[in-house]
Amino acid sequence: MIIHLDKENYKNYNYLLLSPKEVEQEYTMNPFGNFLVYVENKDIIGYIYYSDIYDRVEINQFEIDSSHRNCGKGTALLKKLINDVDKNITLEVNITNKVAISLYEKLGFKAVSLRKGYYDGIDGILMERNRTIGSEKVKDLYILGIESSCDETSASIVLNGTKEIATVTSTQIDIHKDYGGVVPEIASREHIKNITIVLEDCLRKADMNMDQIDAIAITYGPGLIGSLLVGLEAAKTLAFIYNKPLIPVHHIAGHIYANSLVKEMKFPLLAVVVSGGHTELIEMSAHYKFHKLGGTLDDAIGECYDKVARIMDLEYPGGPKIDSLSEKGKDTYKLPVPLKDNSYNFSFSGLKSAVINLVHNEEQRKNPIIKEDLACSFQKVAVEAIITKTKKAIMDKGLKSVIVAGGVAANKGLRKAMEKLAEDLNVELTIPPIKYCTDNAAMIAAAGYFAYLDGRRADLSLNSKSQDELI
Ligand code: KG4
Ligand code: ZN
Question: In the chain, is it the N or the C terminus that has fewer CB atoms within a 10 Å radius of its CB?
């Protein structure tokens, strides 16, 4: 992760190359001084110290810890600076340091003058990068995305985070249906059977080979650990064999970036994340800048749909079944609207219990349940809970742009209610088409592109995580 150190956060890290004292001193002495640092597991493994002087930026120091060199981290750090400052940048480099000179040249720096004896008698070269060079797109980037966090094995190639070239997805729904939900051990075994076929099919469909791929984006979590590991090992193997950068993608970032395949994302925006594992409101100020406003205190909305569907004897996954039944029903059953408070949080376990109690009571009274009506009543309350908090977040934060993400974004009732809300509040709404709402690798490749521009890279020690916060 690459971040700007500021006066508030600089003490939170382990310093391999410089000390917090030096940072503090530079900040006190140089009013133009800034630190951009590469952080891994709280260790600062590389940094650029630069002065941002009105219309230009001067790089004063640039260092990567010796055990982290030659794996693209220096390039990532420099690219992030170029991207973030968007000004002319100058630096001095020792004339004998050919590796550094070639890196700077690749990123658009040009030698402008020689500084005689600048480094203890050895000449230095002053290099400059003109910002107009930076404004031109340097190169198209083809990202191969891989997703295997639950019961879909998927591979996709996406150009510049926006254009889907090819996607191949193998779903295991028919296998898990018999068990009423995803069986983790079976899911992992199915991923192992499918992953190579899916990857080969995807490359064939795109009519591309691995040499034409610029980087590999992989869902490292959250999800089922055994399932995640299959995709992760495939991604690491390809990255190793073909010498490609590996980009770690959080599954929820993937769902959010499904929207980038539809339309350019405009910031600041509110991302309404509604999936089988997550229900969250996330504010984004720019690409890859996530700020969680609130989330579910217990069950996720998709999980609640699936559990309610089970009580109603509907097949897994229950979400789409309730959705289509509810179109034919009437809102006749009284159910409580969950968590009517002033926060941005959600709670769906109470609603689930209310449905369980209602079904049991009706059974005891020998009253048949009208499934269409129960589906309609449940959906109305579940959608209302999402809409109420979404409305509050848009109004409180004065946002003009909203995106919806995750499997439950496929829900017709929610889509309709979101459209009405957007119209009422005059905000721009984006909801991906159904194929990008449920798990797929196109969204991972799209997120991977923006993660790549943000300087995010992983090495072969990357591990999968069943739980992880989106940061
Ligand atoms: O995002 P997703 O594919 O997987 C996770 O990352 O969790 O979401 C799957 C969830 C399931 O709970 C499924 O029932 C729900 O999305 N879902 C729906 C609909 N389509 C999928 N829920 C309500 N209405 C739908 N039309
Ligand atoms: Zn998902």
Answer: C
Over residues 349-368, the mean pLDDT reads 94
Confidence band for 44, pLDDT divided at 50, 70 and 90: very high
Residue 316 phi, psi (nearest 5): -75, 145
Residue whose CA is closest, atom 1 of ligand 1? 407
Residue nearest to atom 2 of ligand 1 (CA): 407
Mean pLDDT of the chain: 93
pLDDT in tens, 141-176: 999 999 999 999 999 999 999 999 999 999 998 889
Percentage of residues in the chain with pLDDT exceeding 70?
98
* Domain assignment of residue 194, yes or no: yes
Check if 276 has its Cβ closer than 6 Å to any atom of ligand 1. yes
CATH code of the domain in which 419 resides: 3.30.420.40
Q: Tell me: do 76 and 218 sit in the same domain.
A: no
List the helix and strand counts (H, then E) for the chain: 15, 18
Show the domain range for 18.
2-137
- Nearest ligand to the CA of 182 is 1
Residue 378: inside a domain, yes or no?
A: yes
Report the distance separating Cα 327 and Cα 371, nearest Å.
11
Check if 150 has its Cβ closer than 6 Å to any atom of ligand 1: yes
Q: Give which of 409, 402, 388, 174 is closest to 302, Cα–Cα.
A: 409
Distance 440 CA to ligand 2 centre (A): 8
% helix / strand / coil in the chain, to the nearest 5?
45, 25, 30
277 CB less than 6 Å from ligand 1? Answer: yes
Ligand 1 in reach of 245 Cβ (< 6 A): no
In degrees and rounded to multiples of 5, residue 347 shows phi and psi of -150, 125
Question: Using CA positions, which residue lies closest to atom 23 of ligand 1?
Answer: 319
Owner of token pair 């709280």: 42
User: Does 365 lie in the same domain as 242?
Assistant: no
pLDDT at site 133 = 47
Same domain, 178 and 213: yes
Q: What percent of the chain has pLDDT over 90?
A: 78
